[in-house]
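quick one if you have a minute, typing this from the bus. below you get a single protein, a line of residues and a line of whole numbers that encode the local backbone shape. could you go over both lines and see whether the tokens make sense for that sequence. anything you notice is useful, everything is just below.
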Amino acid sequence: MSLKYLPEHAQATLLALDLAQKEAKHLHYSQTTLFALPINLDWVHSLSHQPELAEKVEAFVSRFSRLQDHLGEKLLPRMAALVGENSKTFLDTLAIAEKIDLLVSADAFIAARKLRNALVHEYMIDAQTFLEGLFAAQQACQMFFAIIENAQAQTIHLGLPQTGAEHDAS
């Protein structure tokens, strides 16, 4: 008999996936509502005078950062452990995630991590940099959502028991 996955890692992996799906749902909502607005340089300049818009940005940035952290620190390492891959460093984890087709590009994930600094309060310092970071984060969201979809598909392919919660995130 040949194991497809290490059963001792199944529960932690499914829990990490469930949380990622829930966080992704909230990020998707923030992304959809924020980017429904006509975002441009003038809009960025107006943020300091429009707290309700700044709050939308803050929600998006916070959810973006939280999901990114969860993927990099929890879901990807647990998916690696599930299939018997040992990752000692963050770069190892990303390389394994590429190898097992969870992630298309480790470089893109690393670039998305760097966006946090450009998004936190950059609009108060450099509006153009912030605007570019905001649109880059919008694109990175698609990568995060794809990672979660790929992880879900992997758990199904590996035969892990599905709890039903994994299907609520779409």
User: Anything to note?
Assistant: The helical segments are 10-34, 41-46, 51-82, 90-99, 106-120, 127-158. Residues 39 and 131 are 8 Å apart (CA to CA).
